[in-house]
Amino acid sequence: MLTIGQHHIASRLLLGTGKFTDLDVQARAVEASGTEVLTFAVRRLNLDQPDEPNFLERLDLKRYKLLPNTAGAHTAEEAVRIARLARASGLCDMIKVEVIGNDQLILPDPLETYKACEILLADGFTVLPYISDDYMLAKRLQQLGVHAVMPGASPIGSGRGILNPSALEWIIGDAEVPVIVDAGIRSPVDAAYAMQLGADAVLLNTAVSGATDPVQMATAMKLAVEAGRLGREAGMIPIRQYAVASSPTEGMITT
Question: Start and end of every Thiazole synthase ThiG domain (predicted)?
């Protein structure tokens, strides 16, 4: 069971809801993924017009925990304002903190992210910051009191997979809160690898919504996350420089 603050979650695949070709495909992909947590940009919702159609309208939101994010924020102040708007609208007390410092690479700004988390923690939010694979920033944020850290595997939407597995392993190895690998995942191999490294969960969006068959890819990602965690828990054999015979040599007949 994945525990984030006061929230207990069985599925370790968190799914974004954007970029789907239509709402029917989105709904079927969400169902196929088995996810319990949906993330979305607060800025895409018509919070001031709750009766207007929105991109979540085909989903039974009572079945899911909602993880609104502050996508579009470039400063701590903007992120805090978006988070407070989400909570005032009754969405959830959890917030994924995204403060982007570079629009081309869509990389998070570490200083503004830290400032936003500090304010939101004081406000009583369950805080999940999206960060680069920066060991020291992950450490400092945990000391601050965040409820999870979300290092990127590679830039958002790039599909480049896990570029620096060692950095993720360092973060995971010293983590005191859940580590959710977020951004850059392309294939089920990437998702399984993240879990094999010891991640507590994987968050993705484009890998599913941008697939030729999003529903089938959602199923594949669900199975990959499960397989990766099972493999980690089962205890994988060590990597060796040379071959080791798969059959025992003791007691073999000699000629």
Answer: 4-248
- Digit-coded pLDDT (tens) for 120-143: 999 999 999 999 999 999 999 999
Q: In which band, very low, low, confident or very high, does the pLDDT at 240 lie, cut at 50, 70 and 90?
A: confident
Whole-angstrom distance, CA of residue 212 vs CA of residue 120 = 38
Residues 6+ apart with CB under 8 A from 39: 14, 15, 16, 17, 66, 67, 68, 69, 96, 203, 205
CA atoms in the 13 A half-sphere facing the CB of 65: 23
The answer to the question of whether 145 is labelled as a binding residue is no
pLDDT value at 51 more than 60: no
Q: Does the annotation count 19 as an active-site position?
A: no
Question: Cβ–Cβ contacts within 10 Å for residue 54, how many?
Answer: 15
Q: What is the pLDDT of residues 72-124, one digit of tens each?
A: 899 999 999 999 998 988 877 899 999 998 888 889 999 999 999 999 999 99
Annotated binding residue 184 = yes
Catalytic residue among 65, 96, 115, 222: 96
Which token pair is 124?
A: 């009583």
Report which DSSP code applies to 126: E
Residue 183 annotated in ligand binding: yes
Q: What is the bridge-based pairing of β-strands 94-97 and 180-182?
A: unpaired
